Amino acid sequence: MTDISRTQAWLESLRPKTLPLAFAAIVVGTCACLVARAISIRGWRGLALITAGLLQILSNLANDYGDAVKGSDKP
Asked: Where do the TM regions start and end (predicted)?
């Protein structure tokens, strides 16, 4: 087992590889609204992307916490 720094451990626990999937839902929804000309979404696109990313990170951290409490991560 290798020793990693605290910063690296935190960055790995955020699981940045899962963020594109969270962003994809926002991008598809935005494109659908633009095609349908349903609403004006100029100011909301960035906020929606940030919110989706932060919610995905929160979900990843909560999952890791739950696994640690239950002992699921032990070999």
From this structure: 20-39
- Residue-number span of the structural domain to which 49 is assigned: 22-67
Distance CA 62, CA 8 (A): 18
Query: 56 lies in a domain?
Result: yes
**Quick check: 5 pLDDT over 70?**
yes
Q: Which residues contact 35 (CB under 8 A, 6 or more apart)?
A: none
Does the predicted model carry a pTM greater than 0.85?
no
Q: Tell me the C-alpha distance between 2 and 50, whole Å.
A: 33
Residue 75 located in a structural domain: no
How many angstroms separate the CA atoms of 50 and 40, rounded?
A: 18
Supply the mean pLDDT for the chain: 86
Name residue, tokens 């699921």: 72
Residue 63 within any structural domain of the chain: yes
